[in-house]
Amino acid sequence: GSDGQTLYLRDMALIKDAFTQNSLSIRANGQPAVLLNVLAGDEDTITVADTVRGYREAANERLPEGSSIIILSDNTESTRANLETLTSNALMGLVLVFVLLWLFMDTKISFWAGMGIPISLLGGLAIVHFTGITLNKITLFGLIMVLGIVADDAIVVGESIFYHRKNGASPLDAVVKGVSEVGMPVLAAVLTTIVAFFPLYNIDGVMGKFIVALPTAVIACLLISLVECMVMLPAHLSDLKGTPAGAPGKKGLRAAIDRFHNFTVNSMEWAAERIYLPVLRLCVQNRYLFLSLCLSVLILCGGLVAGGKIKFNVFPKKASNIVVAAVEFPEGTPFRVTREAVARIEAAVDEAEKEISALPGTTIPQGSRLVTNVLSTIGQAAGEKAGFSSSASPHVGGVRVTLLDPGESQVHSEDFIRAWEKAAGDITGVQSLDYSASNSGPPGSPIEICIQGENLDHISAAAETIMARLSSVDGVSQVYSDNAPGKNEFKFTLKEEARYLGISLSDLASQVYGAYYGSAALEIQRGNDEVEVKVRLTEAERQSRDSIRDFKVKIDDNTWVPLSAVADYTVEPGFSTITRKDGYRQVMVSAKVDT
After folding, report:
1. Secondary structure (3-state) at 579
2. Could you report the per-residue pLDDT of 545-579, keeping only the tens digit for each?
């Protein structure tokens, strides 16, 4: 001061050294939790997952009592299942091709035709590797899809060579005639399949970057299978024997096998000559009648689908072991309200588990539970990445439940969701409450209706009408609109007097913001941390609407005037989201359907 006295900051302000306010709570199986997300870059995800599991077992032995590391979800489980499916289907196809071709043709043909499956898969994987694409879920899906195609070419070529060799052609002539006879049809069949997958390369955006693995895997396997059946297979069959049976004079088991082999071959030839050829001749002679019958069957099948007798579902719901309930309140809802809602949803998990476990047909192994893990979050939705965002919103939350594998429990995730939703009941004041399973397929709800227009009041009224109509339909549930109003906010309008006092709208906004949200005065270094010093009103003043009426605004001459002298204000609900499409306001109504 002018007379030399010292005035300390603590004499005029309440100084509080604390962390920034964080409205985020994460609990796993009812206990406070910290989430770790382990991602693999160019590494093998299965190896990384196995390493993490090994570390978990070793670390749990060293942790203090009451603390443990648990695995809430492992995305490699589906990859392992796809690998197992690919391996089992390939082996099954190899065995079936070998056995069936051996029954009706030759052992050598059956072996080399069956080898077309592993040769095509391994060759296709080599091409996929050199193109820089990893072995992922999409690649595995493509390989599984192409399994039934790659063996067809070799079977057709092998059967043609066998036919000419059996009818007396020399081994080399049988190969040349056989390949020449079916070479063009086989080439056309493979190329038309390849052409069908080529448009997938034209998909743009993020989806295009993912989907490119599918056509690459399929086309690579088809090209290798074409080379195998047109070049490698004929080379291996160039010394094919004239008859499928072995040399005479065999005794015992080998003779019995040869007799059985001859019987199956002769039976197939008898069926082809006595049954198939007469039916084929009849169809050709009465081709118009046969064509009419085929068209009639086609029309009948189309009528069954169009009439609803045969249900049609593009993306059927696959059972999942992860189900999620995401709750959202209007913005500005206190953290306490969201916490109570999440606690109610979490408690409903036990009721749903008891109800589902008691149903006939549910098979839960001894010592296991249907629900293996429960993750609840407040401040963020409980999705796959729950707890990994740096921001928290106290008006959202959710519960993620990990179930026993549906193959073991025989419980479909949709059945559990219905029981869970029933047990939780209606929650007052909720803006949206969505129960869903972690399934693959297109995003979005089964029903999504967008209303566009220039007048928000008109499209909001239309949305309310649509929601009321959908709610009255049996089987339709969770009807919500994204036109939910936001939290109440103050809207300031400058008076004419403010201009004479030198107050602009920007000045007013910065002063109000600094008083209630805080103005950064300076930053100080404390150890390795950078601490921000913020100046603002006390918490009691910030939480009181009355403090606005007594708020003082600083003008150019360093004097203070009441807020009411320079601006008028109103309290109105704002908008949490504003969606526009093609220049028009848009409101979306969504709903779930019990198929």
Report:
1. coil
2. 788 888 888 887 788 888 888 888 888 877 667 78
8 Å CB contact between 482 and 587: yes
What whole-number distance in Å separates Cα of residue 150 and Cα of residue 86?
14
Q: How far apart are CA 246 and CA 189, in angstroms?
A: 35
pLDDT tens digit string along 343-369? 999 999 999 999 988 888 788 888 788
Q: Report helix, strand or coil for 362.
A: coil
The pair of structure tokens assigned to 433 is 């409450």
Among candidate residues 335, 325, 430, 329, the one with its CA nearest the CA of residue 24: 335
Q: How confident is the model at residue 245 (pLDDT cuts 50, 70, 90)?
A: very low
- Does residue 581 sit in helix, strand or coil? strand
* Under 8 Å between Cβ of 265 and 244: yes
What are phi and psi for residue 580, nearest 5 degrees? -130, 145
Q: Which tokens go with 161?
A: 């060579």
- Residue 586's DSSP bridge partners are 452
User: Where do we find the tokens 């036919």?
Assistant: 163
Contacts 24+ apart (CB under 8 A), 14-22: 14/538, 22/379, 22/392
Please report, for residues 6, 353, 382, 391, 477, the alpha-carbon distance to residue 434 in angstroms, rounded to integers and kept in the order given: 60, 19, 11, 21, 10
Task: Output the pTM of the full model.
Answer: 0.68
Report angle CA 94, 189, 290 to the nearest 5 degrees. Answer: 100
Query: CA nearest 401: which of 428, 430, 375?
Result: 375
Q: How far is CA 544 from CA 79, 549, 553, 564, in A?
A: 55, 10, 18, 17
What number of CA atoms fall less than 13 Å from residue 288's CA on the CB side? 0
Please list, residue by residue across 76-102, b when 16 or more beta carbons sit within 10 angstroms of its beta carbon and e when fewer do: beebeebbeebeeebeebbeebbeebb
Phi and psi, residue 432, nearest 5°: -155, 145
3-state class (DSSP) for residue 68: coil
Residue 185, both tokens? 């049809």
Q: Cβ–Cβ contacts within 10 Å for residue 451, how many?
A: 20
Task: Please say whether the beta carbons of 433 and 369 come within 8 A.
Answer: no
Question: CB atoms < 10 A from the CB of 300, how many?
Answer: 9
CB 323 within 8 A of CB 423: no
| Residue 78 pLDDT exceeds 70 | yes
**Nearest-angstrom CA–CA distance, 505 and 511:** 10
How far, in whole angstroms, is CA 137 from its chain's centroid?
11
Sign of CA dihedral 416, 75, 202, 121: negative
Q: Which two tokens stand for residue 450?
A: 């967008």
Ordered DSSP codes for 398-461? EEEEEEPPHHHH---HHHHHHHHHHHH---TT-SEEEEEE---S--S-SEEEEEEES-HHHHHH
pLDDT at residue 384 is higher than 70: no
CA dihedral sign, ordered 535, 538, 539, 543: negative
Strand partners, 327: 397, 433
Would you state the structure tokens that stand for residue 127, as one six-digit string?
């091409």
The residue type of 66 is G
In angstroms, the CA 296 to CA 292 distance is 6
Give 133's Cβ-side CA count (13 Å radius).
Answer: 24
The helix (run of H) or strand (run of E) holding residue 569 is strand 567-575
344 SS3 class:
helix
